[in-house]
Amino acid sequence: MMLALVVAATALAPVERLYLSYGHRANSFSAAFDPDLERHVTDQGFVAFARHACTRTSLAFFDPVCLETNMETVLDSFMERERQRGRVAFWKVSTATARYLCARHGFAAAPYGTEHALDLRGDMLRGPKRRNLRRDVNNARKAGARVEVVEAADASLTTCERRWLAARPQSREIRRATRRCRAAPEPYCTKVRAVDDFGETLGWAAFDHCYRDGDLVGAGFSTVRWDPEAPKGIPALLAVDGVALVADGRATFRLELGEAPLAPLPTHLAEGFPPLPFVSAVTRLVYDRGRLLYNARGISAWKRKWRAEESALWICCEKDPPFLETAAALALIYDP
Questions:
Q1: Which residues form the Phosphatidylglycerol lysyltransferase C-terminal domain (predicted)?
Q2: Confidence (pTM)
């Protein structure tokens, strides 16, 4: 049996093998499989990134997928190659990664937002702190909604997604910075849907698998879509009942709720990094006044309902104001 596992692991592509060994973060699936991203791959890990030719900028997305002790080696390898091509910037990295980039490579940093996660222990809805979440879930259940695993491609998921997008401030998905999720089954991802008493799809969600040493240890709640006319509470129901289906009775399992983009950092998560005042001003402006562009406040409010563990995410650039890096990021994100 052990020999068979070794042979199977060896046959995997390098990125897939590294993902199954070290892909325990919320964005590890996107780092490994997003079709719009390239990968800088070493024996120890990989960095997901995209290049913008006009500004000669390489924009890395997320933390490196690697063993924590190899993070510095993987980042150094990426920096050595991409600095030969032009500018380098980082989008949505953890405090540990930002700290190393600032100390070793002379970067400055601005908060991108917060990331939320919790361990599944007992009843997730118990206690006064989650009463708003509990109310949402109970409302959906009282309306007759139930959650099931999506086993095959279903046109109703696409229909539901179109209705959801039509009601959003932006009527199309953002590339690279957010998960581009197909309304159909994918490897290393569990799709679930909420249906009513007649079997009609009210909403659906994707849980990207998180791995350590080949073991499924958690799931990233990366995508959720719902019919605007569906009963209130469908997103919460999909998250609560969906992750229970993915966990499948495991004694320990972690729900990665993902980020609240542009949300102000709590005081205890602040760091003394060299600042990026221009980036901070732009992100704060979008958070405060940019609802027609991106509903950051709404996402942040929904994540706070969970009372989950919070950690900081950062944007890292080599100097301020990073005009060319900002232009590159906008071009890559809003590339049609």
A1: 36-316
A2: 0.92
